[in-house]
Design a protein that fits this description.
This protein is an alpha+beta fold. The protein has eleven helices and eight strands. It has helices at residues 2-23, 28-38, 40-61, 111-178, 183-218, 233-236, 244-254, 256-277, 337-343, 362-428, 434-468, and strands at 66-76, 79-81, 88-90, 93-107, 282-294, 298-316, 319-334, 346-354. The strands form three sheets. Strands 1-4-5-8 form a four-stranded antiparallel sheet, with helices on one face.
């Protein structure tokens, strides 16, 4: 009972711990790991990689000898050839035959060896493709994660704006009852209050849409109650030290897509040698072992000789005497099954040479096609590097623009904050009008929302540059 109580207690504690972990906020690392474990594109890329591994293993196994066994059984009726004696017989014969053959290719222009190298490069390229899919998914999840945080901040900002407008409406309603303000001021603030409520509705919709997008990338059901762990986006808003040239040089060594194209180029090069090897003679060594059984097979045992008087006679002095001759006697017995298989065992060894002479130029055209495939792989590799450099230049430009925009908006928020505070003091004191107050408030609200978007946009742009360099993204 103590043991059972201990097991149950530990299970409850473990379940409570898991519940605590599941109920906690989703971290960026958890989101990425969940996506990498469940995303369909990642799963399909893993299958493609395993297929490449199978092809590589099979190319190596093709160099081993081939071994085949065969067995047959049948019944012959009527006039046929006895498989044991190769003589004609006219009876029912049951027969069996067994054989074992082996063959190995000794030389075929190194085609098999180059096939192993070709499939090895293809397998390594498939692994790089898998890594590229994971990297792409990682950056997409980071984008979706930051979008959720950004929309959450915008929702908080919209609610703060609504609270401020609500307080002003409540204050002006009291003042309007007393007749101390023009009714138009209350109407203006009520309109602004309704506008802020609409902003909350839009922000809530944008937040839930961002959550749905994140769940789709993670391939999990949408959970409206999902909470994300906050990150300090402000700490990422620092100057990016690397230059586009240094980022590009690092990407050439680290970026999985570049490695994949280079490996496919090497694989295409080996494919040419595989096709060229088929033009050489093929030398192979073969061996066979066979035996058979026949129900008609008999063995004869010599029993001795006896004198037999025939019907023939000879005349001796006119007297007939019968002719007596010696007759050999044998006993016929059926040969045992196992003994027949052992007695009929025979083997052969052969060295075969196959020389390709003419095959409608098929192999020549395969070589030409392999060379075209190599040329295409070279173009793809070069274009991939060019596009990578262009993407890095564009990403760096976007990052620089986002940094400048973030700094400018930060100054703008500070300026509009001071302007709004002054307008609010005047409006509350009855000196300023509602138009000036609302103008200052709307300017500050817009700049705060723009600042939130710019802050997360800059973080994303820096992550994109880290992605090209193969750096840890979370």
């Amino acid at each position: 009972m103590k043991r059972i109580f201990f097991v149950v207690s530990m299970g409850l504690l473990a379940g409570f711990g898991m519940a605590q972990e599941n109920n906690g906020p989703l971290t960026l690392r958890q989101a990425i790991e969940t996506g990498l474990g469940k995303n369909l594109d990642v799963k399909q890329s893993e299958i493609a990689m395993e297929t490449g591994k199978i092809n590589w293993n099979q190319a190596r196994l093709n160099m081993l000898p081939n071994i085949d066994g065969n067995a047959s059984a049948g019944i012959n009726q009527g006039r046929s050839i006895d498989p044991f004696t190769n003589s004609y017989i006219n009876q029912q014969v049951n027969y069996n035959s067994y054989g074992l053959g082996a063959g190995v290719v000794l030389f075929n222009g190194f085609s098999m060896q180059n096939s192993v190298r070709r499939t090895a490069y293809a397998y390594e390229a498939a692994k790089m493709d898998l890594q590229q899919v994971k990297d792409n998914l990682t950056i997409q999840i980071i984008l979706a994660y930051l979008q959720v945080l950004s929309n959450d901040d915008m929702l908080t900002q919209a609610r703060n704006q609504e609270v401020l407008s609500k307080r002003q409406v409540e204050r002006l309603e009291e003042m309007n009852k007393e007749g101390s303000i023009p009714p138009s001021q209350l109407s203006d603030l009520k309109g602004q209050y309704a506008n802020d409520q609409l902003s909350i509705i839009s922000a809530e919709n944008a937040l839930e849409s961002a959550k749905i997008s994140l769940c789709q990338l993670m391939n999990i059901p949408y959970d409206p109650s999902m909470k994300l762990e906050r990150i300090d986006a402000q700490s990422y808003a620092v100057k990016y030290e690397e230059t586009p040239a240094s980022i590009y040089q690092t990407a050439l060594k680290q970026f999985a897509q570049v490695k994949a194209t280079e490996l496919r180029q090497s694989s295409a090069s080996k494919a040419i040698k595989v096709a060229q090897g088929q033009l050489f003679p093929t030398l192979s060594l073969n061996g066979n072992v066979n035996t058979n059984y026949s129900s008609a097979a008999r063995s004869s045992t010599y029993l001795g000789q006896t004198d037999v008087t025939s019907t023939d006679y000879v005349l001796v002095n006119g007297t007939p005497y019968p002719v007596v001759y010696k007759q050999s006697n044998f006993s016929s017995d059926k040969i045992a099954y196992g003994k027949q298989l052992n007695n009929n065992l025979y083997s052969s060894v052969s060295l075969n040479l196959r020389v390709p002479i003419f095959s409608s130029w098929q192999q020549r055209n395969r070589i030409r096609q392999a060379r075209l495939d190599l040329k295409n792989a070279e173009h793809v590799a070069q274009t991939t590097k060019t596009q990578l450099q262009q993407s890095i230049d564009q990403a760096y430009l976007n990052m620089s623009t986002a940094a400048n925009r973030f700094r400018t908006l930060l100054d703008q928020v500070n300026a509009f904050t001071e302007s709004f505070e002054a307008a609010e003091v005047r409006f509350n004191a009855g000196v300023g009008n509602s138009i000036d107050y609302l103008t200052a408030k709307n300017n500050l609200d817009r700049s705060n929302i723009n600042l939130i978007a710019a802050k997360y946009d800059y973080v994303l742009r820096t992550k994109v540059l880290d992605y090209y360099q193969g750096k840890q993204l979370w």
